[in-house]
Write a structure and sequence with these properties.
Layout lengths: L3 E4 L8 H4 L3 H17 L4 E7 L6 H4 L6 H4 L6 H16 L3 E7 L14 H10 L17 E6 L10 E3 L6 E3 H14 L4 E7 L6 H4 L10 E6 L15 H7 L6 H11 L2 H6 L13 E3 L5 E3 L2 E6 L28 H14 L5 E5 L19 H7 L1
Parallel strand pairs: 1-2, 1-12, 2-3, 3-4, 4-7, 7-8, 8-11, 11-12
Antiparallel strand pairs: 5-6, 9-10
């Protein structure tokens, strides 16, 4: 198989306060993720950069440590130390490093800052990341993979996003240019920038003839129940169940379920809205008559719907999200990824999320059945 497989990190379900409390807790947390990634031949492994306005501050109100001690980004020496430790161990395990930038106001100005100031702050932080074993002139062994969540940042299928407080509007095109400009100015080495969610690719991401073409950008489509799919069902709806109920695993049938949801005719035949079809990997013909891949890369959830058997344990003790692939046999899930590649050989990247909700039964020689408060209580 040729697609790069990226184990994506989607936040700190087990509470950033707990995970980053000491070097020991932090190392124990990410070593489990690395161990799984190596056991199942992933090519890259992710980590989340939490911004000050990402929602994690709600946890800090109840935390015993001050925010400056917790490594909240974008500017913090402890955050830099912790993330560089992760990068060092990931790269020593021959894994490329991916960064999920998570900050709900990443495009919204604060006080007198410019509209893209938060992006500049993140990029400044990213430019300081390094493998501690590398020479100064080559801080990382491989280029970074960077991604943002389109829903968190308001980048849906519409061409612009508007902040309800400031009234300011930023187009998807302007947003991507702000990132590329900041990354290039800081001389950050990255080979992919993934926009997650239902935000359809824009022409300048996939058509080299476009004057604003950006080679590194892709749309990582989460094949997961979205709002509007199956009327009267919420995000924990039938699509997720159709996958989860195939446990211990049926790769061929799971592929068929997803292909059905990409097919407007199938939706219509089943009395559903064909406009709710999931984005489909396909080719688009440009004005020069060239057939171009639309830069859609799949993202599949390994959520278990159970807080007691995962690496991340929600601070309220409830399940973090619905069960999708997370309760399958891990080998069957890998066979599903193989089946996807056979069906869509043009796929360059496959994202698997959320590493922070990793089922510890999938991890060889897992340290504990859960990374929740029970484990923390045994350490401190």
């Amino acid at each position: 198989m040729s697609a790069r497989r990226i184990l994506w990190h989607d936040g700190y379900a087990s509470n950033l306060n707990n995970v980053w409390k000491t070097k020991t807790t932090w190392k124990s947390y990410y070593e489990e993720i690395i161990r799984y990634a190596k056991a199942y031949d992933y090519d890259a492994i992710g980590l989340t950069l939490e911004g000050k306005e990402s929602g994690i501050m709600q946890e800090l109100d109840k935390a015993t440590l001050d925010s400056k001690d917790l490594g909240i980004l974008p500017s913090n020496d402890l955050a830099l130390e912790r993330i560089n430790d992760f990068i060092t161990d990931a790269e020593e395990a021959n894994l490329q490093v991916a960064l999920n930038v998570f900050q709900s106001d990443v495009i919204i100005p604060s006080d007198s800052q410019s509209q893209t100031a938060p992006i500049d702050q993140f990029v400044d932080f990213i430019s300081q990341l390094k493998n501690n074993n590398q020479p100064t002139n080559q801080p990382l062994k491989k280029p970074l993979i960077i991604g943002v969540d389109s829903e968190t940042n308001g980048l849906k299928k519409t061409s612009t996003t508007k902040d309800p407080v400031t009234g300011l509007t930023l187009s998807v095109s302007d947003y991507t240019k702000a990132w590329t400009t900041a990354l290039d100015n800081a001389k950050v080495d990255y080979d992919t920038f993934a926009v997650f969610g239902g935000s359809a690719p824009i022409k300048e991401w996939y058509d080299p003839s476009d004057p604003n073409y950006i080679e590194q950008f892709v749309n990582a489509v989460e094949y997961y129940s979205l709002d509007g799919w199956y009327p009267k069902k919420n995000i924990n709806g039938v699509f997720n169940d159709d996958i989860a109920n195939l446990k211990p695993g049926d790769p061929g049938q799971a592929l068929k379920v997803i292909q059905n949801w990409m097919n407007p005719q199938w939706l219509q035949d089943n009395k559903l809205d064909p406009e709710d079809a999931a984005p489909k990997p396909s080719y688009i013909t440009n004005s020069a008559g060239e057939k171009l891949y639309n830069q859609i890369m799949p993202a599949f959830s390994i959520g278990t719907g159970n807080p007691n058997n995962t690496l991340g344990k929600h601070s309220n003790g409830k399940s973090i999200g619905p069960s999708v692939f997370g309760n399958w046999d891990p080998e069957q899930f890998i066979k599903f990824l193989d089946a996807w590649e056979l069906a869509y050989p043009e796929t360059a990247d496959i994202f698997v999320y959320q590493a922070d909700q990793l089922n510890t039964s999938w991890v060889p020689n897992a340290i504990a059945p859960s990374w929740g408060s029970d484990l923390l209580n045994t350490i401190f």
